[in-house]
Every structure is written in structure tokens, then in C-alpha cells.
């Protein structure tokens, strides 16, 4: 009874208190340029990860897929821990090891008990500095990756978005997929993979991030001990020069009438990571909302497009996106529909875009801002999400932007800003389109382009 009384009397922190009570992110730069960043808390566990400014955008047509290949091999042993010894050592800690590669960054992270943080830092340093690249493992992983590529072809949503990048950024590195082509995976050699590591795994392009029950001073001491051997490059040579990835209004259509549903993606060029317009565009996407047939609510959903989709059976699902890169981005939406509903769904979605440009209201902007605040606070859920937030922010913005600052940026958005910024990026712009499946009903590109503005009398 006493315990229940204590539980009832325990006060919940308000939204403002939550933002103010977030621990400070401490950042230290080592002599070789490696940035060490952490957020300390009273968690019994911690997540420590290495975020690297390298991805498929840094590859050419012949080496596309090298970063994804290296990510696979990183977990298959090092020169100090050959074979499965690396995996067994991680398992002996009861830890969880994971990683990913995207178009502009690569990450490796380990979640473990807080007391094992120094050992985790050592494992991460061994992983990136001493990757074995054994010929037998390369051939084994080559087969694994080729099988993964076959399975990825069955995920039509991802295939459609890859096609969207291919047409929007044709002729540039952003047009390439993260995983590479089947031909490249078959031909990449040990020398290609070693060259990728030697070129991109440089200290100034790395962030060692940590969150949980750890001490920043102890993290820095461990980093100095284990990462001092990571090559240093002068500031002007730290990041390879990226060619401007010019956006092109064009389309890719992959018609296959044997498929049951069509996947359609449409996007315009959006801003890069650091552009303040991103906050306004995220509010606009929150106004559009997202929908799936499994959702409840029916026609009573707050999203006007979702209510139309339910009432007229326009699609199986739709979702807006705002994919940002260093100097450009894709702002758009993706939907899945039956073959005979494509035209109606495209018409309603584009009309919603035009409405954002011309008549977005304060009430729906307020709702969208509250949705974004909820999503923002959800970043505090668990050490892994916090750690990824720290690592990604330092790569994208050069610092971790506090949630209080994000909240202030969101609060400053009003309906007029939404109309102005959406007009800047959407109104009368040439979109990029990717379509896969039974897409006979998808209108001609010029017809879709003509719906990117309204003729007002």
C-alpha cells in the first residue's frame, strides 16, 4: 500500500521541464581531429558508436557498393581478433553490435553495460583500424551480399525510392544505390575495399559518440588510448570534394502488370541538412500526414489526404518524406495504390501540395507542430537513439542542436511561413517521378507537371 501511494504521488515532468533537464552534450576534439561526444545519464547501459562521413556518395560507378561491402566485413574479424573471435568477444559482454551504411554516412555502434564502455571503445577502434579483409571472408560475404540484393529487389518501396534518386540525380554519385550493383559486387577486389578504408576512415571525418551511464572524461581517455592511430589529415584534405549533385525533373517508369499494386514516388528538390527551411517543410509533411489501411479512425483522421484516401479508396498507404543531404534533398511523397486508382490519388496528393502553397491554415499548422514536438521528444527514448542523434548531428551540423533550440524553431513556424516555403520548393517546379508495377494509368509527365501550379483567375 505504501509503494502504491508513492507511485501515485510521483509527479510527471512537464514538456518544458523535460527539455530543460536534458544533460549537456560534451564534445572534445583529439589531436588527430577525432571528435568525442557524449551525453551522461544514470542509465545502467550505454551505447557507444562511431559515425563516419563516408557513404555511397563518395563512390564512383566502378566502386559503388564498396562501403556496403566494408560494413559487412567489419563484423567478420580483425587482424587482432581473427575469424569469429570478434563476434564472440562482443557476445561475451552481452552486448549488441550493429551498423549501417547510407548515402553520406557509415555507422558502427555497440550497446553494452556502462561498466564495459572502455572495452567497447577498444572493439570499435579495432573494427575500423584493423579490418582483416581476408580473401576467404571477402568471397563468403560476396555471396551473402548478392543474395541480399535479390531480396531487396522484392521490397518495391525501396526499389521505387532508389529509382527516384536515379532519375532526380542522374549522372551524379547520389544516383547510385547504397548497396551497389550486382556487377560491382562480383568484381570488387580486396584492393578496392582497402583503398576505400584508407581514403575515407580518417579521424577528422569520424565522431565517437556515446550516451548512457558513462563519464565523458573516461570516454575521452579511452579514445586517446585506442584511436590515436587513426590517420590524421589536414583540414583542407579531410573531406573529399563532392561534385554538385544537380537535381533533374524527370521520370523512371518500370511497368510490370503482373504485380498486384503500383508504387509511385514524386519529389521536388529540397534543402540540405543545415538549411532552416527543413523545419518548415517537416511541419508541412506533418500536415499532410501518413496513412495505411491498417490505421483506425477512418474518415475522421486529421489528415485531409488520409480522409480522402479512406472515403474514396484511393490507396493502400501513403507517406511524405524529406530526405536531406549535404547540399540538396528530396521533398516528396510515396504511395501504394491499385492500378485504377493511380490517377485519382496523384490528383489528390498534388492538390494537397498546392493547398499548402496557397491556403495552409493556422489550426493545422498548430496540430503539425505538436506532432513534431512529440516525435522530437521520442528521440530521448533509449541510449541508442540518443547516441545516433549525437553522432549524426555532429556530422551534419558540426554540433548537437539542443532540443530547446529545435522547439524554438518549431514554435516560430506559422501558416504564412508554411505557404511561403512550400511555394519556394514546390510551386511550379519540375518534379522527379519514379513508378513501379501496373502503372498504365499514370498520366504523362507533362500532365503531372501541369498540376504543380494552379491557374487563379
From TrEMBL:
Residues 35-181 form the Peptidase M16 N-terminal domain. Transmembrane segments: none annotated. GO terms for cellular component: mitochondrial inner membrane; protein-containing complex. It is a peripheral membrane protein. It is found in: Mitochondrion inner membrane. Keywords: Acetylation, Electron transport, Membrane, Mitochondrion, Mitochondrion inner membrane, Phosphoprotein, Respiratory chain, Transit peptide, Transport. InterPro entries: Metalloenz_LuxS/M16, MPP/UQCRC_Complex, Pept_M16_N, Peptidase_M16_C. Residues 188-371 form the Peptidase M16 C-terminal domain. GO terms for molecular function: metal ion binding. Gene3D superfamilies: Metalloenzyme, LuxS/M16 peptidase-like (3.30.830.10). Belongs to the peptidase M16 family. UQCRC1/QCR1 subfamily. Component of the ubiquinol-cytochrome c oxidoreductase (cytochrome b-c1 complex, complex III, CIII), a multisubunit enzyme composed of 11 subunits. The complex is composed of 3 respiratory subunits cytochrome b, cytochrome c1 and Rieske protein UQCRFS1, 2 core protein subunits UQCRC1/QCR1 and UQCRC2/QCR2, and 6 low-molecular weight protein subunits UQCRH/QCR6, UQCRB/QCR7, UQCRQ/QCR8, UQCR10/QCR9, UQCR11/QCR10 and subunit 9, the cleavage product of Rieske protein UQCRFS1. PANTHER family: CYTOCHROME B-C1 COMPLEX SUBUNIT 1, MITOCHONDRIAL, METALLOPROTEASE. This is Cytochrome b-c1 complex subunit 1, mitochondrial. It comes from Pomatostomus ruficeps.
Amino acid at each position: 500500500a505504501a509503494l502504491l501511494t508513492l507511485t501515485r504521488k510521483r509527479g510527471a515532468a512537464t514538456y518544458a521541464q523535460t527539455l530543460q533537464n536534458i544533460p549537456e552534450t560534451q564534445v572534445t576534439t583529439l589531436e588527430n581531429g577525432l571528435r568525442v561526444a557524449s551525453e551522461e545519464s544514470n542509465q545502467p547501459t550505454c551505447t557507444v558508436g562511431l559515425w563516419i562521413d563516408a557513404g555511397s556518395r563518395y563512390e564512383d560507378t566502378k566502386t559503388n557498393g564498396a562501403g556496403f561491402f566494408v560494413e559487412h566485413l567489419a563484423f567478420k574479424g580483425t587482424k587482432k581478433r581473427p575469424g569469429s573471435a570478434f563476434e564472440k568477444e562482443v557476445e561475451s559482454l552481452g552486448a549488441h553490435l550493429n551498423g549501417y551504411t547510407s548515402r553520406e554516412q557509415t555507422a558502427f555502434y555497440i550497446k553494452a553495460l556502462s561498466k564495459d564502455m572502455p572495452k567497447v571503445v577498444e572493439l570499435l577502434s579495432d573494427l575500423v583500424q584493423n579490418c582483416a579483409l581476408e580473401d576467404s571472408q571477402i568471397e563468403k560475404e560476396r555471396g551473402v551480399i548478392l543474395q541480399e540484393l535479390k531480396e531487396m529487389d522484392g521490397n518495391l518501396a525501396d526499389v521505387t525510392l532508389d529509382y527516384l534518386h536515379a532519375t532526380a540525380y542522374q549522372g551524379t554519385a547520389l544516383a547510385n544505390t547504397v548497396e551497389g550493383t550486382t556487377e560491382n559486387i562480383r568484381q570488387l577486389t580486396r584492393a578496392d575495399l582497402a583503398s576505400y578504408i584508407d581514403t575515407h576512415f580518417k579521424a577528422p571525418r569520424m565522431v565517437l559518440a556515446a550516451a548512457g551511464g558513462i563519464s565523458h572524461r573516461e570516454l575521452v581517455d579511452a579514445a586517446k588510448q585506442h584511436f590515436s592511430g587513426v590517420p590524421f589529415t589536414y583540414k583542407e584534405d579531410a573531406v573529399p570534394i563532392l561534385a554538385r549533385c544537380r537535381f533533374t525533373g524527370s521520370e523512371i517508369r518500370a511497368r510490370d502488370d503482373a504485380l498486384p499494386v503500383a508504387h509511385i514516388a514524386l519529389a521536388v528538390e529540397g534543402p540540405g541538412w543545415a538549411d532552416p527551411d527543413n523545419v518548415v517543410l517537416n511541419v508541412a509533411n506533418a500536415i499532410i500526414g501518413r496513412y495505411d489501411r491498417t490505421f483506425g479512425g477512418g474518415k475522421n483522421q486529421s489528415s485531409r489526404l488520409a480522409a480522402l484516401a479512406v472515403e474514396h479508396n484511393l490507396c493502400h498507404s501513403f507517406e511524405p518524406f524529406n530526405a536531406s543531404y549535404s547540399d540538396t534533398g528530396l521533398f516528396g511523397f510515396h504511395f501504394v495504390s491499385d492500378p485504377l486508382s493511380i490517377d485519382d490519388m496523384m490528383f489528390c496528393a498534388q492538390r494537397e501540395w498546392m493547398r499548402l502553397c496557397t491556403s495552409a491554415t493556422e489550426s493545422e499548422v498548430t496540430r503539425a507542430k505538436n506532432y513534431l514536438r512529440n516525435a522530437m521528444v521520442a528521440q530521448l527514448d533509449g541510449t541508442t537513439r540518443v547516441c545516433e542523434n549525437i553522432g549524426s548531428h555532429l556530422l551534419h551540423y558540426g554540433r548537437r542542436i539542443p532540443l530547446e533550440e529545435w522547439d524554438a524553431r518549431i514554435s516560430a513556424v506559422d501558416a504564412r511561413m508554411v505557404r511561403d516555403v512550400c511555394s519556394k520548393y514546390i510551386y511550379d517546379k519540375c518534379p522527379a517521378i519514379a513508378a513501379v508495377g501496373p502503372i498504365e494509368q499514370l498520366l504523362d509527365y507533362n500532365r503531372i507537371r501541369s498540376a504543380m501550379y494552379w491557374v487563379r483567375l
